[in-house]
Amino acid sequence: MADTDLLILEDASDAAFTLDKAYRKAVLANDLDTMVELKPQVDAVYDTYSLMRLKLLEEGVVTTAADVAEMRRLKGEIDQAAETQQLVAGAIALISFLRKFV
Prior knowledge:
Order of helices and strands: HHHH
Structural class: mainly alpha
Strand content: under 5%
Distance between the termini: 24 Å
Number of strands: 0
Number of helices: 4
Number of domains: 1
């Protein structure tokens, strides 16, 4: 049986890193509008991820296969986002999802 908590942690980390890359791309392009839109969301994702990570590592397996499926759907949305607004929407959805484990 797979450790669903670890799967969630891995996918959430990957999704957060995808948001980081988009933010970094905006920084390098000096795209202030995108930077302003993404920065608060990226920070909130990492803050929530950190809290969730601590909880999952302490509690044992608390997630389900359905949670893994939802996390993978959200990660896919973030991975496929072509516009800043899609990234922001994906980040907000990810934050909401991760908060249920905090």
